[in-house]
């Protein structure tokens, strides 16, 4: 009996010691374990469905939800409620029209050019019900890029939304010359060669078309083409498979969202964040979403209160826009508990919490076409996820040394890449394998190959090049530092634009800031720091105050040498700061109408950049 008591006591002490050791040395173990367990179970179930040819696609899940909860609101748009049954039946009507009138067949590729509205979903689901591949076109697309997109994905049919029909008229002739048929979500058309859909679906049957048309035999079959922004070139059509779609839809669920949540979606549906994580996630949960035509910072919180929103999607600078709104007594009066997105800078993150309460912000890191996903389910400010043991079971990725001057990874004497130490910034590469493939871009093997880095650690291996510079801390948390190409080199030092922007953010008269590097004639190997910024309402630019701030808080090589004041910073369609045009325009005061300033060490201030000073810079007579 004494022996048994002693053994039990020793066991209890051992278990207690193990728990204490785990808490001290591995504080995130169990949270990470249970979170990753959810994803692994989902992944195993998904792969088994592939082996048994019993794949349940995103569309299949939507149809199941429409049968299970037909009267539940699926989409609330502009005050109108659209139930799961409503969207299902309207997409059935469209599917019938696509088969009988448009003459679409399984396997055809159809381009979709529509703004955020319920019919975007109806057309998308209707096309998938007849087995078509769907290419989501950016609604800001220009004529040259428009034709290029069709050539990429091979689409021969275009469905255009009612709000975009008139904008398209000037391009119709070019499309028709390329044998592309155009159908508009209107009842009438200005051009007799543009066919109409609304008048045809009114009398169409809402009964489902044969299920065999939408069936797929492989998770790796393409289902969508989603285009990159093309900010530095023509858009690229990323191939999106059923596997990628299904994994994207479980993001909200993995972060703890449920069927009782109301999801606020104000991002453009032609991007994967809104369409797959947002709409797909709503379907996976069987929840309700509030769909906005476009984001409005002034309407956001009123919308949240009106519709009892509990979850919202963000990207890029959206949260900064909210923080820049005038403070009110209602700032913390809402039911929002969870934000899911990416690109939230630490300074904005902290201010967002101060203003609007303890909302858990969950960063999701990953590109539309990439084969890597990181998820910060801890809500730890500034990080995009963890490089944990569990995460490495799903994804094999590394940070390698990167040469900013040569714009390529550093190679050793044997031609292989070198891993960085913890705390150091490196280029993020994700290994391509059969279990973690990279499907590339439609219509261009060259573009697909360009995104791969080969012979990284051994001959013959291949890694997806994310183009992102990141760092890992001692607790394995990952931090985004900059985009490859956004980091520039000045006088022998690397300058990370996001770090400089975060440092400048507390300056009282600065509302928004975008940092980039510009070429200085005669110094081709260097890029001088420049910052475009907007001012807070009622405040003016103070060159002396900014000089004092940068001299105190930034190293010499990172201080912006030029300032450009703008009324508004140009953004991409996903609220990311646009740098390319700013870089291209440089700092010539004769070519730029915005007020420009230059750092003057003698006057201890930022002074107006005149033509005279500009010429002195070119002649090397003004110190930079």
From TrEMBL:
Residues 64-386 form the AMP-dependent synthetase/ligase domain. The keyword Ligase applies. Its EC number is 6.2.1.3. The keyword Methyltransferase does not apply. It holds the Pfam family AMP-binding. GO terms for biological process: long-chain fatty acid import into cell. It is a multi-pass membrane protein. It catalyses: tetracosanoate + ATP + CoA = tetracosanoyl-CoA + AMP + diphosphate; a very long-chain fatty acid + ATP + CoA = a very long-chain fatty acyl-CoA + AMP + diphosphate; a long-chain fatty acid + ATP + CoA = a long-chain fatty acyl-CoA + AMP + diphosphate. GO terms for cellular component: endoplasmic reticulum membrane; plasma membrane. It comes from the Eukaryota. Its main location: membrane. NCBIfam families: PRK08279.1. Belongs to the ATP-dependent AMP-binding enzyme family. PANTHER family: LONG-CHAIN FATTY ACID TRANSPORT PROTEIN, LONG-CHAIN FATTY ACID TRANSPORT PROTEIN 6. This is long-chain-fatty-acid--CoA ligase. It comes from Monopterus albus (Swamp eel). The lineage of its organism: Eukaryota, Metazoa, Chordata, Craniata, Vertebrata.
């Amino acid at each position: 009996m004494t022996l048994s008591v002693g053994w039990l006591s020793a066991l209890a002490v051992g278990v207690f010691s193990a728990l204490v050791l785990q808490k001290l040395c591995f504080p995130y173990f169990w949270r990470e374990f249970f979170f990753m367990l959810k994803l692994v179970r989902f992944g195993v179930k998904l792969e088994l469905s592939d082996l048994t040819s019993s794949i349940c696609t995103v569309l299949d899940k939507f149809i199941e939800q429409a049968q299970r909860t037909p009267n539940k609101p699926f989409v609330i748009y502009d005050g109108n409620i659209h139930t799961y049954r409503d969207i299902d039946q309207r997409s059935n009507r469209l599917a019938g029209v696509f088969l009988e009138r448009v003459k679409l067949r399984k396997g055809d590729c159809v381009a979709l050019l529509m703004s955020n509205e319920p019919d975007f979903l109806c057309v998308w689901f209707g096309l998938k019900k007849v087995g078509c591949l769907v290419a989501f076109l950016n609604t800001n697309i220009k004529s040259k890029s428009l034709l290029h997109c069709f050539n990429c994905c091979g689409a021969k049919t275009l469905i255009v939304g009612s709000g975009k029909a008139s904008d398209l008229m000037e391009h119709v002739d070019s499309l028709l010359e390329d044998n592309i048929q155009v159908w508009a979500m209107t009842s009438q058309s200005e051009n007799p060669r543009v066919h109409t859909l609304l008048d045809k679906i009114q009398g169409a049957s809402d009964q489902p078309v044969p299920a065999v048309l939408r069936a797929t035999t492989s998770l790796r079959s393409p289902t969508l083409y989603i285009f990159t922004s093309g900010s530095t070139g023509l858009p690229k059509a990323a191939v999106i498979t059923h596997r990628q779609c299904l994994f994207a839809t479980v993001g909200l669920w993995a972060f703890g969202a449920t069927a009782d949540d109301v999801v606020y979606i104000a991002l453009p549906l032609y991007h994967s964040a809104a369409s797959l994580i947002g709409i797909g996630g709503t379907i996976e949960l069987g929840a309700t979403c509030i769909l906005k035509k476009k984001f409005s910072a002034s309407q956001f919180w009123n919308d949240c209160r009106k519709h009892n929103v509990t979850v919202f999607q963000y990207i890029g600078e959206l949260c900064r826009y909210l923080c820049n709104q005038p403070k009110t007594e209602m700032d913390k009066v809402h039911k929002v508990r969870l934000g899911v997105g990416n690109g939230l800078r630490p300074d904005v993150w902290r201010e967002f919490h101060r203003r609007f309460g303890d909302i858990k912000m969950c960063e999701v890191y990953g590109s539309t076409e990439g084969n890597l996903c990181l998820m910060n389910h801890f809500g730890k400010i500034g990080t995009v996820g963890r490089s944990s043991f569990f995460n490495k079971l799903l994804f094999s990725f590394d940070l390698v040394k990167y040469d900013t001057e040569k714009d390529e990874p550093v190679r050793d004497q044997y031609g292989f890449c070198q891993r960085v130490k913890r705390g150091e910034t490196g280029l993020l590469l994700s290994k391509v394998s059969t279990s973690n493939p990279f499907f590339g871009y439609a219509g261009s093997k060259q573009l697909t190959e360009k995104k791969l880095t080969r012979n990284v650690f051994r001959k013959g291996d291949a890694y997806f090049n994310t183009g992102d510079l990141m760092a890992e801390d001692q607790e394995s948390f990952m931090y985004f530092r900059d985009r490859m190409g956004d980091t520039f080199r000045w006088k022998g030092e690397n300058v990370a634009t996001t770090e400089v922007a975060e440092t400048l953010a507390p300056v009282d008269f600065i509302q928004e800031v975008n940092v980039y590097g510009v070429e200085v004639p005669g110094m081709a190997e260097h890029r001088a720091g420049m910052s475009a910024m907007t001012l807070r309402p009622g405040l003016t630019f103070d060159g002396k105050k900014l000089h004092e701030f940068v001299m105190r808080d930034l190293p010499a090589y990172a201080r912006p040498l030029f300032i450009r004041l703008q009324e508004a910073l140009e953004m991409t369609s996903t609220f990311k700061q646009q740098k390319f045009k700013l870089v291209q325009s440089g700092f010539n005061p004769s070519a730029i109408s915005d007020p420009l300033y230059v750092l003057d060490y003698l006057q201890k201030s930022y002074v107006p950049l005149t033509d005279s000073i500009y010429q002195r810079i070119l002649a090397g007579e003004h110190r930079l």
